[in-house]
Every structure is written in structure tokens, then in C-alpha cells.
Specification:
Blueprint lengths: L1 E2 L2 E2 L2 E2 L2 E6 L5 E8 L5 H6 L1 H10 L4 E6 L4 H9 L3 E4 L4 E5 L4 E5 L21 H10 L8 H8 L3 H13 L3 E3 L5 E4 L1 H11 L2 H4 L1 E6 L4 H10 L5 E3 H6 L15 E4 L3 H8 L2 E2 L6 E5 L10 E3 L2 E3 L2 H9 L5 H15 L6
Parallel strand pairs: 5-6, 6-7, 14-16
Antiparallel strand pairs: 1-4, 2-3, 4-5, 7-8, 8-9, 10-11, 12-15, 12-16, 13-14, 17-18
Helix pairs in contact: 4-5, 4-6, 5-6, 7-12, 12-13
Protein name: Transcriptional regulator, AbiEi antitoxin, Type IV TA system
Length: 333
């Protein structure tokens, strides 16, 4: 391995050689950075490829203490490998034929006490901004976004800054938000939000089946919103079947036990077919709609809940996002 060799106008961090038993070999350039925020990583793609060409190398690997899932996705799309201090690694060579791929942490275990910027989308303020960005008409300014999300301007600005650094939004003239990558954004939100880990959940069973429970909701005077698989189905066209059977009914309710009594559910610790969820913030039920006499959660919330829900719900989330993408390209994978 060569440490900081100079090739053309570039001072490279390191260059190493991979030797195969048959005598063939490949040269790999390592680009080392102290941080790997997705937007900064993406901005350096061309320079990294130029370094590889200058060194006549077969591949280049980006090295940092931690590389997030989104940054790794961007690096993979650009044909660049990676290695971080948690064990995330990818090195792919055509000849000699090499593919090394390992998984480490998906969350950054390293903290910098000096860096006070927002790093998480956990909590009500972030949830409100994210939910707004998953639906709002663009372009939009930070203050208008704050009003729509019902948060302070400072909260809106901190969340937008995080999303900008992670390459999930684009900003145009006057720092207006001109583009939102909604599918990656909802995936990023569910790194910090989860249906069962962010909310209080009680398990219940309707011994007469989910159809009976849904019928009970039509006549119930209690406040509730249906999310999960049952809600996802209401967004599918009539000729499209869900990719998974309906096995669990998920209900948001401020008073779960009162709702359970009113529609004939029994709380249980095993064999549940209904989850009663007390939302950690009202934004989770914002934008709900009534269909067939039952109130269902907004599509973006259903996606987030399905991505973090039980069973095969992630497959249903992908199906719903594919349908949303047909009308809104921002939901494209």
C-alpha cells in the first residue's frame, strides 16, 4: 500500500493493490474523509472518479468513520466502494473477480459534541415537517413549511437543514425547497420513527374476525383512524390485489381500551389480530379520510407505518409507493 502518493494533480490518501493467486492484480484508490454526509459524498463523485483515472486504478473506495445507508446507496449507484469504522464495506473488482460486501451499523455510533446540528428525525417536530414534505405542493419556503407543519420556524429550519445535508431535498432561489425525494425521505424517517417503537401499542383480538371489527368501526362514536394493511388496500385500484393477506388490523386511538370495548375487542398478550395504537403526536392521524364509513390514515402515514409494521407490511408499503409514484414522480424509487 502507498500512503499519500501523488498522481498528476492529485495527492491521494492511499493506493493499495489486490493480488490474486493466479498472478493477476488490481489497484484500488482509497479516499478518506472525516464525515460522509450524503450530499457532500455525492458532490465529490466526479473528483473521486478523476482520482481513479489519474492513478490508473481499477476501483476507488470511500472511507469514513460512518457511512449512512443513503450515502452507501449513492456510492453504489456511482460504482464507488466504501468502508467505515462500523464494518460497512463494499469492494467490487472485475479482474481479478472480487466482491466483498459486509454490513455494519445503520446508525452513526460516533458523536461530535461540537456539532450541534440536528441528526435525527425522532420526535413530533421532525414528524410534522416530514409529513408535510411528503404531501405539500412545491416550491415552499421554510416559514411557509413551518406554518403548514404547525411547528416553529427554528424547528422547520433545523429539519430542512438535516434533509438538505442528506440529499433528500433540493433548494433553489432564496433557499426555497424546490424538490423532495419522497420515497427516500419516508425511508429515512422510518430510521427514527416506527409504528410500534414510537407509539404506545396494546394488543387485542376480535374472535369473530377482522371483518366484524371493521363493521364495528362504522357505527362507533369513538375517535379512531385505521392504518396499516387495511388502510393500504383503500388506495389500491379496484383491479389490483394486495401483495399480502390482511392478518392484522391496526387502529390509531387516543383511548384504545374504550375503543376496544365499543367494538367488541378483547385485550390479549398473545394471538392478537388487532393492534391499538396511541399516537405519539396528532400528525400521525392528520389528513385522514373516510371511505365506506370508516376513517383511514393518509397515504404517506400508511407507508411509514407499513415500512415499520408487522408481517409482510414492508412489501405492501413498496406496492403502495409504486402506485403513488404513478401520479407523483417524487415517489419513484
Amino acid at each position: 500500500m502507498e500512503h499519500q502518493p501523488k498522481h498528476g494533480k492529485y495527492r491521494l490518501d492511499a493506493v493499495f493493490r489486490v493480488d490474486a493467486p493466479d498472478g493477476s492484480h488490481a489497484t484500488v484508490v482509497a479516499e478518506v474523509k472525516a464525515s460522509a454526509e450524503p450530499r457532500a459524498v455525492q458532490a465529490s463523485f466526479q473528483q473521486m472518479q478523476n482520482m481513479r483515472v489519474a492513478a490508473s486504478a481499477d476501483a476507488i473506495v470511500f472511507v469514513a468513520p460512518f457511512i449512512s445507508p443513503l450515502a452507501r446507496e449513492r456510492l453504489g449507484e456511482a460504482g464507488i466502494g466504501w468502508f467505515d469504522g462500523t464494518g460497512n464495506m463494499r469492494l467490487a473488482l472485475e479482474w481479478p473477480s472480487v466482491l466483498i460486501q459486509r454490513s455494519g451499523a445503520d446508525r452513526n455510533p460516533f458523536s461530535n459534541p461540537v456539532d450541534r446540528r440536528l441528526k435525527s428525525l425522532r420526535g413530533p417536530g421532525a414528524a410534522r415537517v416530514v409529513r408535510s414534505l411528503l404531501e405539500i405542493e412545491l416550491p415552499v419556503g421554510v416559514r411557509d413549511l413551518a406554518m403548514r407543519a404547525e411547528v416553529g420556524a427554528a424547528t422547520s429550519a433545523r429539519v430542512v437543514d438535516l434533509l438538505d445535508r442528506e440529499g433528500l431535498i433540493e433548494r433553489g432561489a432564496g433557499k426555497m425547497i424546490s424538490e423532495v425525494r419522497r420515497r427516500p425521505l419516508v425511508h429515512r424517517w422510518t430510521d427514527d420513527y416506527g409504528l410500534t417503537r414510537s407509539n404506545e401499542v396494546e394488543q387485542a383480538v376480535d374472535p369473530r374476525g377482522l371483518a366484524h371489527a371493521l363493521d364495528g368501526l362504522r357505527s362507533s362514536e369513538d375517535q379512531y383512524v385505521v392504518t396499516g394493511s387495511a388502510a393500504a388496500r383503500t388506495y389500491l385500484p379496484a383491479d389490483v390485489l394486495s401483495v399480502a393477506p390482511l392478518t392484522t388490523l391496526v387502529l390509531y386511538a387516543d383511548q384504545p381500551r374504550k375503543l376496544a370495548r365499543s367494538i367488541g375487542l378483547r385485550t390479549t398478550s398473545r394471538g392478537a389480530n388487532v393492534l391499538l395504537v396511541r399516537p405519539f403526536d396528532d400528525v400521525l392521524v392528520k389528513g385522514s379520510r373516510i371511505e365506506g364509513g370508516i376513517r383511514y390514515a393518509a397515504a404517506p402515514q400508511v407507508v411509514a407505518d407499513q415500512l415499520t409494521g408487522p408481517g409482510r407490511s414492508t412489501e405492501e408499503a413498496e406496492q403502495l409507493m409504486n402506485l403513488l409514484a404513478e401520479k407523483d414522480p417524487r415517489w419513484t424509487a
